[in-house]
Amino acid sequence: MGYYLTIDQGNSEAKLALWEGETTEGFIMEPQLTPAKLSAFVGERKLSGAIYCSVSREDVDVLRRLCHMTRHAMRLTPDTPLPIKVEYSTRSTLGADRVAAAVGAWSEHQGKPILVVDAGTAVTYDIVTPDGVYCGGNIAPGISMELRALHEFTARLPLVGFPENMPQLCKRLFGQSTREAIALGAVYSVLASIEFYRRRLSPETVVVLGGGCGHHLASICDFPVVVDEHLVSKGLNRILLYNENN
């Protein structure tokens, strides 16, 4: 049996995952993905298929290398057949990562309403019905983006790094220094948004946190959440398998 490759090209890095069926066999994050790095990651493994999605500029050279590595290479586009139904008025502008995250969450939690929170450079909040209908969502700045914006759009506020130890930081409700106030403001704005949407949805709704900040946010949530940092990659693999089987 061959392997399947998924590539999630985000705003700050690319996430590559190798799958054997639905089992992850390898995963890396590349700030600067090149054809050489792609080939090195796959190595001697035989690819049965591959899928590429990008929320930034598509890398033509990477796509060409992908097509040489397997005859079954595809891009996730608005016209790609999906295992879920998408109800969105501007389907052509819907981020491929949002679609993949929704598929990944629904594949694990079919039969329940799902709030999909993909927390990376930006944070997306999307809803999927129990029977697999993507109904839309919202987009907001992520924690790092908020921290950077506060520094760049003000005259005197310092640039604060991403708070890795959120449980320690969030022992306080209000900061006692300017740097602490900035960090808490950015973290609580995202946490409060998750709570806001959660309270307005059905009590049966499963909150799924993905993205690079997902596990950090989960550490300070006082309500049940499911963390899946490979949510988009998992969704891409499901989409690839769905198209292979159909």
Characterize the structure shown.
The structure is a single chain. This protein has 246 residues and is an alpha/beta fold. The chain has 2 domains: 1-75, 2-Layer Sandwich (Nucleotidyltransferase, domain 5); 80-246, 2-Layer Sandwich (Nucleotidyltransferase, domain 5), CATH 3.30.420.40. Helices cover 35% and strands 26% of the residues. The chain is built from 8 helices and 11 strands. It has helices at 35-42, 60-69, 96-108, 143-152, 166-169, 178-199, 214-218, 231-245; strands spanning 3-9, 14-20, 23-30, 47-54, 73-75, 85-86, 114-119, 122-128, 133-141, 206-210, 226-227. The chain has a 6-stranded mixed beta sheet, with helices on both faces. A 5-stranded mixed beta sheet has the order 3-2-1-4-5, sandwiched between helices. Strand 4, helix 2 (60-69) and strand 5 form a beta-alpha-beta unit. The radius of gyration is 19 Å and the shape is globular. The chain starts with a strand and ends with a helix.
List the helices and strands and how they pair.
Blueprint (H helix, E strand, L loop, with lengths): L2 E7 L4 E7 L2 E8 L4 H8 L4 E8 L5 H10 L3 E3 L9 E2 L9 H13 L5 E6 L2 E7 L4 E9 L1 H10 L13 H4 L8 H22 L6 E5 L3 H5 L7 E2 L3 H15 L1
Parallel strand pairs: 1-4, 4-5, 6-9, 7-10, 10-11
Antiparallel strand pairs: 1-2, 2-3, 7-8, 8-9
Average per-residue pLDDT, rounded, comes to 94
Largest sheet: 6 strands, mixed
N to C succession of SSEs: EEEHEHEEHEEEHHHEHEH
CATH topology of the largest domain: Nucleotidyltransferase, domain 5
Strand order of the largest sheet: 6-9-8-7-10-11
Structural class: alpha/beta
Write down the Rg.
19 Å
Q: Name the CATH superfamily assignment of the largest domain.
A: ATPase, nucleotide binding domain
Number of distinct helices:
8
Low-confidence stretches: none
